[in-house]
Structure formats: structure tokens, C-alpha cells
Specification:
single chain, Glucans biosynthesis protein C, acyltransferase activity, transferring groups other than amino-acyl groups, Glucan_succinyl_AcylTrfase, globular, Acyl_transf_3_dom, about 65% helix, transmembrane helix
Length: about 400
């Protein structure tokens, strides 16, 4: 029986919970896409609401940026604990391995649901359509597992930048200068500084649609510049913060102003993108595009920093439930998209309000995912593979033998 290793004394429970929460929000985001008034998903339900579009916008705004910020911090932490060799072995096993193993079955399941939807929309018969595009670097369908591919790219960049820095910084002077600069980044101005590169990248993005914000990375092996900028800056910032772990206290203390900034700029970006009836057309006027790109970029990092600060402020304690969901979130995210699509198709024929359908899809996906996680993943070699540890099944305590007292003389 594998013995569970003790908890590290400096485990960042709040950030671990936020990492899991960001992945679980992917279930809500993809489930909501079937109920938005604008066409944006292969499964389009008849019951729609602008509230579903607002929910999608709010989650998409900050979720993956916050995830990559935490990923950068944890990556730098792991290099410090395990060394470069241990880090590479762990990431190849737990990131590259799941991408290689689960990509094919996940894509096959998604295609099967797409065929199912096409048959439904065509009155029960398979429609004729154009053949799929040839598989190239530009058309490679990463699906929702794209984040694993981007993580591998950012890990490689981190190691490439770290090697010459470590070689040149033998006396620690460069490191101290970098740490001082990092300290100067922390304040109410942090979202503005981090947002500047993304604002430029979004402005330079051809055919940019503000409602969709950071362009998705589900197709193609070369990330688009805007997404690579958004997630790369967040990842690098997280790595720098790990060098100055004391700065987490400063971020935590700014939870209120970061939250106010996130709500204000997020609401402004939503309204400028059309609000309840968002425009699906690219912005063409240069001045309008520049203003919207700047506002959206500000909202992205304000939201990510607000989520980070709130997690540090309110979720830093030890919680068995949060730890369990954080552990399960990786498996849930890997398998959730085909399950979400199946749930949305099953809801099509029901005369339920959109929010009831959305709740049913989310509940069904979470139930199936958590049951399979508990029965197949958590207590098996798969748990060690995906989560870095296998939690043994609990066994009843062995009965304690009771020795009878000797009879009285």
C-alpha cells in the first residue's frame, strides 16, 4: 500500500483551490454556450438568455489568465524543490503524458457528438458535407486540451530563460535587482502594468471581436500572439512572485481594490462589446479598437489578480472539500467537454427554462466526473499519474485484541 506523503508546510492552499476552481469553471463556461442568444456553439438550444452570454463573458475574461499565473508560480516552486531534471520528468509525465493519451479519445468523442447533432439537425439522416481540412500545424485540433500544450511551451521558455540567468547571476546581483523590480510591480497599479503588452497584442490582432476577448487556442499548434502574450505575461509574473513569496501578502491585502477594478472594468468591457446583444463583428475603427483593447486587457488582469487575492484572503485555510475538488479538477476538465455536449443534446427536446437546463447539464457532468474520479482515478495508479499521489482506500481499523484479566485468587 502506498503511503500518502505529508502535506508540505508551505503549501499554498488558497492558490491550489483557485487553480482547481479555474478548471471547474470550464464546465460552466462550455455548458452556458448552448444558451446564449448569439450563435457560438455547435449545440444551440431554443431556450436562451442574455444572462448566459454575460456568464460566458465573465468567466472567459479572467479564468485562464488566473490559471496561468498560478501555473507559473507553481512551476518555479517545483524547479526549486526538485531541480531542473526532476521538473522536466514530472511535467513530461503529468502534462505531456495526459495530452498524448487523452487527446485522441477526447477528439473521437467530440466528433461522435458532432455527428449526432448533425443528424438531429438534418431530420434524422446524415447530411452530406465537405471533407475535414487536412491536418496541418495550423489546423491541428487541440480541443479544450490546448492549455496543456501551452503549458509545455511556457515550461520550455522558462527553462531556456532560466539557464543563462543562473549562469550569469553567480553572485546574486541580478537576482536581487529582479526581486526589487518585482516588488515594485505590486500595488493598485499592477493590472495596468501587466495589461500593457496584451492591449497592444489585442489591437494588432486581425478581425478581433471584443466579446470573445483573448482568441481561443483550440486549433493550431502555434499559439496566436494575443493569447501567448496574455498567458505568458501571467505565467512569468507568477514565476517572479515565487521568488518573492512575501509579496503574496501584499496581493492578498489588495483584494478589495482589485475586486472593484475587476467589476468596473469587466462591466465596462461587456457593455462596450454590446452587452445583452453583443456584436459578433470585428472592430474596424482604429480608435475604438485601441480603447476597447486597453479596457479589455485591464479587465483581464484585474480579474485574475482579484481572483488570486480573494483566494489568498478567504481560502488559505486547510479544507478537505477544497483539496478534494482541486485534486479532481484535472480529471474533470480532461473528460468534461464531450459530457457537456451530450448533456446539452439531451436537453434539446425538453421545455425547460434555460437556467434549469444549464443546471442539469452542470450537475450531470459533475456527477459523472466525480464518480469516475473516485472509482477509477483517485485510488489507483492514475491518481499518482495525474495528481502526483495515490490516495489509498480507507480500510477499517484492525480489531484490538483484548486480554482477559486473570481470575482472582
Amino acid at each position: 500500500m502506498t503511503v500518502q506523503s505529508p502535506e508540505p508546510v508551505d503549501r499554498l492552499h488558497g492558490l491550489d483551490a483557485l487553480r482547481g476552481f479555474a478548471l471547474l469553471l470550464g464546465v460552466v463556461l462550455h455548458a452556458a454556450m448552448a444558451y446564449t442568444p448569439m450563435p457560438m456553439w455547435v449545440v444551440a438550444d431554443g431556450q436562451t438568455s442574455p444572462a448566459a452570454g454575460a456568464l460566458f463573458f465573465a468567466i472567459h475574461l479572467f479564468r485562464m489568465t488566473a490559471f496561468f499565473l498560478i501555473a507559473g508560480l507553481f512551476a518555479h516552486m517545483m524547479i526549486g524543490r526538485r531541480g531542473v531534471g526532476g521538473f522536466i520528468r514530472d511535467r513530461l509525465s503529468r502534462i505531456a503524458g495526459p495530452l498524448a493519451v487523452f487527446w485522441g479519445p477526447t477528439l473521437a468523442a467530440i466528433i461522435a457528438v458532432l455527428i449526432w447533432v448533425a443528424v438531429i439537425n438534418n431530420g434524422g439522416t446524415m447530411p452530406e458535407g465537405p471533407p475535414p481540412p487536412p491536418l496541418t500545424v495550423q489546423t491541428f485540433p487541440l480541443t479544450h486540451l490546448w492549455f496543456l500544450w501551452v503549458l509545455l511551451i511556457l515550461y520550455a521558455v522558462l527553462l531556456l530563460l532560466r539557464a543563462p540567468f543562473a549562469a550569469l547571476d553567480r553572485n546574486g546581483g541580478w537576482g536581487r535587482a529582479v526581486d526589487r523590480l518585482t516588488g515594485g510591480l505590486i500595488g493598485p497599479w499592477t493590472p495596468v502594468i501587466l495589461a500593457a503588452p496584451l492591449a497592444v497584442a489585442l489591437y494588432l490582432t486581425p478581425n478581433w471581436i471584443p466579446f470573445f476577448g483573448i482568441p481561443t487556442l483550440d486549433t493550431g499548434l502555434v499559439p496566436n500572439p494575443a493569447a501567448l502574450t496574455a498567458f505568458g505575461v501571467a505565467f512569468g509574473f507568477g514565476a517572479l512572485i515565487d521568488r518573492r513569496r512575501d509579496l503574496l501578502t501584499g496581493i492578498r491585502s489588495l483584494w478589495a481594490p482589485f475586486t472593484v477594478m475587476a467589476l468596473g472594468t469587466g462591466a465596462g468591457a461587456f457593455l462596450l462589446s454590446g452587452g445583452a446583444t453583443p456584436s459578433m463583428a470585428p472592430v474596424t475603427d482604429p480608435q475604438t479598437k485601441a480603447g476597447m483593447a486597453a479596457l479589455y486587457a485591464f479587465a483581464v488582469y484585474a480579474g485574475a489578480l482579484a481572483a488570486t487575492a480573494l483566494a489568498l484572503r478567504f481560502a488559505s485555510g486547510v479544507s478537505g472539500v477544497r483539496r478534494y475538488l482541486a485534486d479532481a479538477s484535472y480529471w474533470i476538465y480532461i473528460i468534461h467537454l464531450p459530457l457537456v455536449m451530450v448533456g446539452q443534446v439531451l436537453m434539446l427536446g425538453l421545455d425547460w427554462p434555460w437556467f434549469a437546463k444549464l443546471a442539469a447539464v452542470i450537475a450531470g457532468v459533475m456527477a459523472v466526473s466525480l464518480i469516475t474520479y473516485e472509482l477509477l482515478i483517485r485510488h489507483s495508479f492514475m491518481g499518482r499519474w495525474l495528481n502526483g499521489r495515490r490516495v489509498p482506500w480507507r480500510r477499517p481499523a484492525a480489531p484490538v485484541a483484548v486480554t482477559a484479566a486473570p481470575p482472582a485468587e
